[in-house]
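Format notes (please read before filing issues)

Several people have asked whether sequences and structure tokens are stored in separate files. They are not. Every record keeps both together, in the order shown below: the sequence lines, then the token lines. Line labels are part of the format and must not be stripped during preprocessing.
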Amino acid sequence: MSCGDEHSSRKISRSDGAAGGIYFFAFLGSFIYYIQHAGTFWMGVWGFCKAIAWPAILIYKLFEHLKL
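Then the structure lines:
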């Protein structure tokens, strides 16, 4: 048994905490909102893109407002 074999049985776990879950539900809610208000297929596609990007824009505007 070589040294490399000893480390191969280690289990590596990673926890992102609650932030991933919060982002997922925020994305899901905004996606449903945009899809309900989409009049065409391409407006639905655009709504999907907006649902992905809106958290970053929201944080940017918050930091801008707080002057951080």
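For reference, the curators noted about this record: Residues 21 and 27 are 10 Å apart (CA to CA). The two ends are 55 Å apart (CA to CA).
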